[in-house]
């Protein structure tokens, strides 16, 4: 932790006064004007290009201090006790921690350099404004300090989010377990968010929800944190598989895996359901879904506490859900082309005040609030009575004290395993172990012993026996429908059959792959009145809105317990949105719904049960 301590930052053994600076600057990744408490930022000192020349420097000192101009008179006298966050070195060959300034970074050697990079973890809420200052020594005669772009002020982002107020600041003392039903309702429409609402209604919606009920020792996404690889894939593509694996890797902190079907046209403003269980250790809930289409925008909740201070559980709760930027893509509009953010920024809420580009759908010069995209309902359905086994104040390891670092000492990480695939994207893992297993078991240590990461094989694309087929596994298709009746009652017409992507959200992505699959097939046919039309049959009668056959029933909307399953059929012209018809077929779309049971008949789930290892009680 960096705390305010005053020290001299003038270069030693140089008598000349400092020069006016217009050659060097301090930069923060993403150029924010506020910091998110606990957020991680890349801080850079860099020479500014002048024509084709970039100035270099031999030594420097970077420090973070309280911004006294933002302190009240009473605060100014005690500023030295404020938390200013943490510096972390990115390249120990270039930089090191200062020996005489505990809140400063300085050079490792006098080798000339064009820039230096460190990371800074912002302090906790209530820490106020900070200022980064730098001293830069070009040579033994020219040096700069604090002036111009060598000072940069960041103030705390004090914006409040509804579920921030519900995060716990106490130890959960509930003895009973509780079962909750979660309802996710879409609110996003051209009426609630009219500015630049995406064209092509069949492409909009919310991707499958993924989440968990978990302990306070685990968090898979949060305001101010960097997105993991799994969250990045959810935010950019709606792919939940890697994030699900990341959650399961922390199964010791998980009570229930939460999965629910996404909402897509024509049910974007509909509802989807899931159930989950909580207990006194795993009393937080987090879920996330991608706003589709978008560059990397998500919605959901993180670390929502359902435990009450009176040792009971929340009975009912409604939460409006707002858009968040995952910090991995810099696109401005819903349909912006890919523009990776390098380096990644922290997850942040999207507001009208920070959307400074008029092209942004959230841009509003008046600064009015962004309307919610969805709403979350949490209803407690059942309590499972249990006896409290731990006395108040006794730790979970039974000793009344937290395990010491010696008790939980671990070995070095092993080398990463080979990538699990020879082509495309796979997984790799590494592990470590406790140095004293008996002691660590006795103290109930909970350090991470196994890590998984995404990896890319040397062969980036996987070959297929049929290169005419789309490679991407997300581009899966339904079975062919049955052939339609002949399009004419007499003479020569055609029969049609169709198939479509199982997820309509995949159409835009998959149809642009090389050699995309055929979605509609036609064959010639003769009407029931014969090859030649007579007056009885008159002119050829063509159905202006031919329907496909019913789709397969969708997977159950609930991951466990009761849910809903739907099947659909639609006008053939909607299978290929690019094909236009003169007739309005909007009323021809039909849908059927039925009750179903999720993957698990019971919602009393644990990570072991999720993996198929059913427990008996």
TrEMBL record:
Residues 335-357 are annotated as: Disordered. Residues 168-361 form the Spondin domain. This is Spondin-1. Residues 335-355 have a biased composition (Polar residues). Pfam families: Reeler, Spond_N, TSP_1. The keyword Kinase does not apply. Keywords: Cell adhesion, Extracellular matrix, Repeat, Secreted. GO terms for cellular component: extracellular matrix. The keyword Secreted applies. It comes from Coptotermes formosanus (Formosan subterranean termite). CDD domains: Reeler (cd08544). Residues 1-167 form the Reelin domain. GO terms for biological process: cell adhesion. InterPro entries: Reeler_dom, Reeler_sf, Spondin/Thrombospondin_T1, Spondin_N, Spondin_N_sf, TSP1_rpt, TSP1_rpt_sf. It is found in: Secreted, Extracellular space, Extracellular matrix.
